[in-house]
Every structure is written in C-alpha cells, then in structure tokens.
Amino acid sequence: YSTLDSTYYTITEADSAIGSAVSSATTTLRSEIAGSFNGLLFNPTFVNYPTTPGVPTSWSSWSTPASVTRQTGKISPYAARITTTGGVDGGVYQTITGVPTGRYFIEFTTELITGAYTGAAVYVQRTSDGATIAFYKLTTTADVNGDVSSSKTGIRHFRPDDFAYTATDGSVNVYLMGHW
Q1: Predicted pLDDT at 8
Q2: How buried is 90 (Cβ within 10 angstroms: 0-12 exposed, 13-18 middle, 19+ buried)?
Q3: What does the CA dihedral 110, 156, 121, 119 come to, rounded to 10 degrees?
Q4: Rounded percentage of the chain residues whose pLDDT exceeds 70
Q5: Do 159 and 104 contact (CB within 8 A), yes or no?
Q6: How many CB atoms neighbour CB 179 within 10 A?
Q7: What is the distance between the alpha carbons of residues 16 and 12, in angstroms, rounded to a whole number?
C-alpha cells in the first residue's frame, strides 16, 4: 500500500526554494571549512604577544637576531619586528608536531620598513632529517600582486604555491627569517 502525494509549486516558489537551499549549503560549507582549518601554527598572527622586547607566545628565537620586538599590527593587534644585521642569521621559529603527509599552503604578510629583503625568508623544515620542505626567499618570491622585489617598502602579502609534505615523525619547524 502506498500513497502518492503531489505538491505543485510556481516557478517563483521553486526558484526561491532552490536559492534558499543553495545559500544554506554554501553557508554551511564555508562554516565547515573555516571551522575545520584553523591552521597548523599556534599564534600565527601574534595576537598573544605579552612582552617586548621578546618573541610572541608559542614562538622561539632562532639564531641571533639583533632584536625581536612587538609592534602595532596592520592585520592583527600585534606584529613581530625582526631586526637583523646583514650576514648574521636571525629570526623566530615554531615547531609543529602531528603534521600528517599532505599538501599544504602558506601565506604571510610582511612590511619592509627600511633596508632590503636580502636574506629574509619563510622556511619550512622537516625536523627528523633537516630536509627542506619549502623555502620562500622574499627577494625572489612573487607577492599576490605578482611583484618580485628585494626593496619594495610597505605591506606585501604572499601566497605562494602549495607544497607537499611527507611525514616521517610528523614534526616541522617554520622559520620567519630576518636574515639567513
């Protein structure tokens, strides 16, 4: 025994129902993507940066930067200003554990105040064997506007191609290098 029930809609009602369903699905998808990907770094935008001079919470000094100081941020409340001397390695880094094999992307924003990007880079290294996973030299990496410059001052946003990571121990170091 079955019952067949028919409901008829006008074109306007059908379009409205479809539009509502698509909007709901799009909102849900955006919410799931935003909720599921919080990034691998802890404190990536330096929101937690209680003291200066010093490094942001969850970051450590790498080598011997001349100084790392908290500055007012352009995108978030704070920024880390890494001042280095030419020919001397220095910056900040963070070790991330539990990273599975996969494809990842990285994006970063910089502001060159004085000098040049010579020696400045973002570097991702596998900790188990020191293998280079990704190395973005700011003198040769194009920003989102396609500009490649070692001396362009002001704010620049970078979103280079994604990179592959093959896990060994699932641990990587991410370096923000004022100079290398």
Answers
A1: 56
A2: buried
A3: -90
A4: 79
A5: no
A6: 23
A7: 6
pLDDT top residue among 121 and 31: 121
- Give the pTM: 0.76
> pLDDT tens for residues 121-172?
999 999 999 999 999 999 999 999 999 999 999 999 999 988 899 888 889 9
A 10 A CB-CB count for 91 gives 26
d(CA 164, CA 156): 24
Backbone angles phi, psi at 69, to 5 degrees: -130, 150
Tokens of 112: 């060159």
Q: What does each C-alpha distance from 180 to 20, 77, 159, 167 come to in angstroms?
A: 53, 27, 21, 25
* Joined tokens for residue 25: 């699905």
Chain centroid offset of residue 34 CA:
14
